[in-house]
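Lab notebook, design round three. We kept the backbone fixed and only want residue identities now. Task for the bench partner: fill in a sequence for the structure below.
Input structure tokens:
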């Protein structure tokens, strides 16, 4: 089983690619489209995941979930947020439940 700490590594890679904008980088190209474009992509990926969960096999659901998480991390970066901010919110909700 993989370690979810890789999400922090991915978050760092996304930040670096957005800031450096290397030629040929999908991340940099998508980020250059702006927050609205990335938010739209998050929505598309969420729908694809929901449809996969309803009708596809485990591998397809996993792939769609990975796409959603990647695009979510990019959206958070563009909004100057980090995954840690989301985790803190979830922890706070849990404490207050």
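Proposed sequence:
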């Amino acid at each position: 089983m993989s370690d979810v700490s890789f999400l922090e590594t991915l978050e760092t890679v996304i930040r670096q690619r957005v800031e450096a904008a290397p030629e040929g980088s999908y991340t940099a190209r998508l980020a250059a489209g702006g927050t609205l474009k990335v938010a739209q992509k998050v929505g598309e990926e969420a729908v694809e995941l929901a449809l996969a969960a309803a009708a596809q096999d485990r591998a397809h659901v996993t792939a769609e979930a990975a796409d959603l998480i990647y695009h979510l991390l990019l959206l958070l970066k563009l909004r100057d947020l980090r995954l840690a901010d989301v985790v803190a919110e979830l922890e706070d909700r849990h404490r207050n439940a």
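Keep this in mind before ordering anything: Residues 49 and 63 are 8 Å apart (CA to CA).
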